[in-house]
Amino acid sequence: MSLHPPPPAAWSQPMQPPAYNAVHPRTTMQSASPPAPADMAPKKVDWPPAVRQYVRRAFDPANAIAGISQADMQERLKDTIGYFAERKSTDTIHWPTFPLPQQLLADERSKAAPGVHPNGFSHDLQPTPVNGADERTNPQSKKRKSQDAAELQAEQTQASVPPWRKTNLASRMTYAQGHHDKRHKKNAPDAASKFDQAELDKRRQRFQLGNNNNTKTTPPWGSPRKDEDEVPAGPVVGTNQSLEKSYFRLTAPPKAETVRPLHILKKTLVRLAEKWKAEKNYNYICNQFKSLRQDLTVQHIKNAFTVKVYETHARISLEKGDLGEYNQCQTQLKALYAQNLGGNPAEFKAYRILYFVYTCNKTDMNDMLAELTLADKSHEVIKHALDVRSSLALGNYHKFFRLYLEAQNMGAYLMDMFIERERLNALANISRGYLVVSLRFLTDELGFDNDETCREFIESHGGQNIVEDKGDHQYRVKVREAASQFDSLRAAAFSKVDIKGQI
Amino acid sequence: MQVALEPFYEAYASGLSVPVAEFLSPIAPAHNPGRLYDFYRASNDDKLEGDVRYALKYNKSTRMTNRESGAWVDILSGYWRAVKEIIKADEAANQGRLGERQYVAVYDAWKDLTSTFIKHMSSGLLPTWAIFTLYFTANHLRKIAIRADEQLSKSKSAAPTTGYSDDIVSTGPQNQKLEEAARVFNRIFALCLGDRNPDMADSRKWGVYCIANLQFKTYFKLKAISLSKNVVRSIEAQSDLPAFGLYPRAHRVTYKYYLGVLSFLQEDYKKAESSLQEAWETCWSPSQQNKSLILTYLIPCRLITQHQVPTAALLAEAPRLERYFGPLVSCIKRGDLTGFDKALADGEPEFVRRRIFLTLERSRDIALRNLLRKVYLAGGFEDLKEGQSEKDRIRKSRVPLAHFAAALRMGGQVVEDDEVECLLANQIYKGLMKGYISREHAMVVLNKKGAFPNTGI
């Protein structure tokens, strides 16, 4: 009776984007070329951009050498790259100047042709001819196989291997094998088949693609690809090297050239943080962060670095009081923390509590409280936020302004959002509870820096004539006289909460 | 098939919704645990509709028109298919090899049954009382959906979740089936509310409140409480419903209860109190479970609106209420702030779950008021002046701040002097205490009459 027939085994497996099939970007050259790299795919799939560039050059008809067949060239290309890949030293080669396979072949043949090879075993050398090339072009390469070189390589592979590659390798391989035959048969890489059928249905509904009978016969994803620009449905792997990039809302799948890979993005974050410190140009920084986040999202990068990006952006937007942007980051962070990717979950939980204090949203606050564990509650910053909440709930403004002065991290910026409201609240309380108080008392109780700012606050909120100069720097405030003023201002302040707060 | 449908004929002949609903149940009755199985054995996939049609046609005891019997054929066939899935699922569960989508299959079959029912209901082929039978069917759908969601979430967490969705944040629906069911309920609700039949005796409008209650229940479970407001709004906008008092008591009590809780959550305690009060008064007295549910919200309401604590006798009626409110209430009465804080912290997980924590927290004011009042009473009376009699004695209305501070500290509170003033100013502002604070004299000057309103002094 199930509405959805059980999907075929190969489909049912991954909800996750699994195999990112061929790694080469789809260019005219590549789609026409025989799948030399694809054969190597099981060994190591991700090639640095330089290598890919090299392969492209090899296939470029302009570089073809007469007398050397395409098949020979491919064979050699495969050997060459395979050789370095096996030793994980593709990074040590300067690919743009490295001789093309056809050149290597031509060189060898011209040497071998006279039959007077100096060593006399030129033919034995054939299977591993790259040795010679290696030494010739890159004499230090042997020395570089020292410990620090290995470390460097490890670092670099780490930087260049996107996270889903590393973590998901095993499942990806099995999937790729299971999928292999099918892909060949079908000829058109069925990118969509990796999604759950239900997901697809939902997606189709979302985009309202076609009417019912139409979608049944020719599903949009089933049609063979003709468009060269079309990017595989898997994550893009960026090749863009620029550190700064403006944000544009995507209306089409991103192109690899416009997307920056992880190791560039890491530098970008450092650069942005420095710029923010130096220039404090919020509009620019916010824009940059949005493009940074976009690059992460389209490449499906989800790791500690992602958390760091969102945290940094959230903090900066808090500093500027841009709650709209902050909220976006906060939503993402909540989900990222749920996957235990590191970061500072406690700090941001505290912000969320303070944020709900600001919005006066009892339902959300209740849900928030329900979420907190005992460990959370004993955490210093969360405890501070909870104390802020309870002090306000119980009308303990004395304690509240104490806590305001003790706020950590960006908490003070968040509290700034509602500090005026709470000052009015406290003032309304005091004006009913006392007849006369000293200005100094108000300054202390309301958490002002000095008497002057306190006085300004009172006078700009309906208390123009209630501050009395007693001489000798003694001021008295006849609070009761402005009680109804304070009260109505307080009510007004609580009635409207601007939660968007976009700049 | 004729034999298997015998209970249905009996139920149908009664012209009541409940017996028919009992026949169309996903659970076999206790007195006949094999009934589902017998019913399933009475037919098979190929012959099903023919069997049912034949049985209904040649059965003498029920008289229905051809078109009506056609509708029942659809419904009974749908029921048979659902029963098939239930039996499959049960057998699989007994053998400990419950498939991932087993309950989803039950859910799908039951949803088909419900949809068929709705279809024939809206085309007017079925007698009006069947709307309540439909309610029971829908309620079963709700339970099955919850179960299917549980199974789905379990099987998902068992599978390795790599979680690389299109977005950084994956928003997989947690309660997919129940959300789907909620949409089905919405259709039933519209079907009831929108009945244009002028003859009220024959109107589906009688089903409005029980379906609304079903929707509330679903939305609360889905944590989409705000959707309930739409239901309330459309009921309040419908002017031609029968008088509320004419509806069955069960519908009224549940509806008012949910109405009260909704107002409670929007912090409209006045409205919440009146709705809950009505539910409380209408509630069938032996129904302990319902009564304590109502009181769970009515008691915090009363604390806020009238500063009233429940009597010990009322709390004693239900152990759950006693556990919830007993410690808090005794601390409030004693003016024991430290004890109050502890009781609140102890009960926090439960209170938060019931969404009453933030409201209960506010009753700390009353505990504080009671403590301050004690200080005031302990201050004693002014000396008698000349010509005054015992009757004219007045209490000392000037109380040193230090006294209040001492009382708070004796109770175990760690407070600074300024904080004490702050708490007092708060009490005055909220109208729990009348008077003013004089910083110059470090005194609180209380009203000579009614220093603590509504407490008898």
From TrEMBL, chain A:
Q: Name one GO cellular component term.
A: nucleus
- Composition skew (Polar residues), residue ranges: 208-220
Q: Where is this region: Disordered?
A: 1-44, 110-167, 204-238
Q: What InterPro entries does its record include?
A: PCI_dom, SAC3/GANP/THP3, SAC3/GANP/THP3_conserved
Q: Cite the PCI domain residue spans from the record.
A: 322-485
Q: What superkingdom does the record give?
A: Eukaryota
Q: Which PANTHER family match?
A: 80 KDA MCM3-ASSOCIATED PROTEIN, LEUKOCYTE RECEPTOR CLUSTER MEMBER 8
The entry's protein name is: PCI domain-containing protein
Q: What is the lineage of its organism?
A: Eukaryota, Fungi, Dikarya, Ascomycota, Pezizomycotina
UniProtKB/TrEMBL annotation, chain B:
GO function terms (MF aspect) = double-stranded DNA binding; RNA binding
Read off the InterPro entries from this record: Csn12-like, PCI_dom, WH-like_DNA-bd_sf
Source taxon at top rank: Eukaryota
Pfam families (alphabetical): PCI
Boundaries of every PCI domain copy: 253-451
Question: Which family would the database say this protein is a member of?
Answer: Belongs to the CSN12 family.
Q: What is the name attached to this protein's record?
A: Protein CSN12 homolog
